[in-house]
Amino acid sequence: MSMLKIGDKEFQSRLFTGTGKFSNSALMAEAIQVSGSQLATMALKRVDVNDQQDDILQPLIHAGVNLLPNTSGAKNAKDAVFAAQLAREALGTNWVKLEIHPDPKYLMPDPIETLAAAEQLVREGFIVLPYCHADPVLCKRLEEVGCAAVMPLGAPIGSNKGIVSHDFLEIIIDQANVPVVVDAGIGAPSHAARAMEMGADAVLVNTAIAAASDPVAMAKAFKMAVESGRMAYEAGLAGQVSHAVASSPLTAFLDDL
Amino acid sequence: MTPPNHSITELNDATSGKDKLVIITINDQPQQVALNANLQQIITQFSLPDVGCVFAINNQVVPRSEWASTVLSEGDSISLFQAIAGG
Fold it and tell me: One of A78, A97, A140, A223 is an active-site residue; which one?
């Protein structure tokens, strides 16, 4: 299978993972390792020095996973640029998953603020991967301002509804000159396989793995689904027709009897 | 902001004047730190991981290379962020 190139990095695995919602950091690290993922998202939070969180960084660094800090919590372009600058200093990477969602109920990405932030972050030397609507025009605009990839949603974040935005993703994939990563909404390995069969360059999965009864086994299932879907895409799917076409020549033999 | 219960004089007395303490705010919470402490020492004092943390003062990121030379005075307000799990 072909390698995926984003910015200056090459990836063997086309499964990107999120680190949120796991019950503990050891389980998170094990699931991500089993998934084969080489890029994992993280968030930034104000520290309460009296109530510190698990250090999730060391197990990921130890596993050799590249880090993709997000700008979660940003409600506008200004917040997002600041979050990206913080993340660059904290984690020593200029990669950023740009996400701006002002409304916590649906977590819909703000397209106007996202485009403005993307433009500025690219100018500041960031490798920008914006989370956005499955909007073909917006994705094109994000590509034009220099984003290294686009990450349109399959369905609302954490909804596990699958590739609800199918028809629009097809247009995005058809038009894109940068990798298309389907982010959000992928709830089952079959959804991931479907996105890959459509020609998506990668998928980003978090909740579906983290919230599974057995996250490690689910991580493996996603790894296989993504590989299978990509392999199918590269093999070239046979086209669909609306009538039956025999696969076997036996019909003619039986007619002769 | 609510001032801390104890005065700085008391704190100084408590440490026999060897390690004088000042009050700063980290993420809007008052904290005691040594007089002339720098940002690198804040990491040590609160047992924070070195990698994954970042400071900002007045919404400006403080580069890691400036942590040791950024000295804190009474009443300073700093922001401190850490990488955590997220999607």
Answer: A97
